[in-house]
Design goal:
152 residues, mainly alpha, Helix Hairpins, 2 helices, 0% strand, FliJ, cilium, membrane, protein transport
Length: 152
């Protein structure tokens, strides 16, 4: 016996829902990575700013040339770390946008299949109702005919 269209669509819809749920998970993970990259960048920039302010305040007392060279090297490393973190954030945002597009596609696909499945169920219900009405009409006609024959 062949399966009903709604049964076949239910299977495809279930697969699409699982795909969408995976996309939900990937989207959440990607958003978390992006948020972590933003937080880390803010922390690095804040630390760089604090270190420069502290050095400026302490610089009023005077520094030796080795302290200045050491400070400049450390500032340079911090600035490099900030640039790298900007790159990490850029990549995280780019990945998030790609994952978001995938999620939107998966969501739309699951929603479309759900509507198709619902339409198939509705069509099958209409068919069942018609068949039931036809059977009722046939029984009614048989009852009327047998009533006509029994009254003679």
């Amino acid at each position: 016996m062949t399966k009903k269209k709604s049964d076949r669509l239910a299977l495809v819809h279930d697969l699409a829902v699982k795909k969408r749920e995976k996309a939900d998970q990937y989207l959440a993970e990607s958003r978390q990575r992006m948020t972590q990259a933003e937080t880390q960048l803010q922390q690095l920039e804040g630390y760089l700013r604090e270190y420069q302010e502290q050095f400026t305040q302490n610089g009023q007392q005077g520094f030796s040339s080795s302290q200045i060279v050491s400070h400049q090297a450390f500032i340079s490393r911090l600035q490099h770390a900030v640039r790298q973190q900007y790159q990490t954030l850029y990549l995280a945002r780019d990945q998030y946008e790609q994952v978001l597009k995938h999620w939107q596609h998966s969501y739309a696909q699951a929603k479309g299949l759900e509507k198709l499945h619902d339409k198939a169920l509705d069509a099958e219900q209409v068919q069942r109702d018609k068949k039931e009405q036809q059977q009722i009409d046939e029984r009614s006609q048989l009852t009327q005919r047998s009533g006509v024959f029994s009254s003679d």
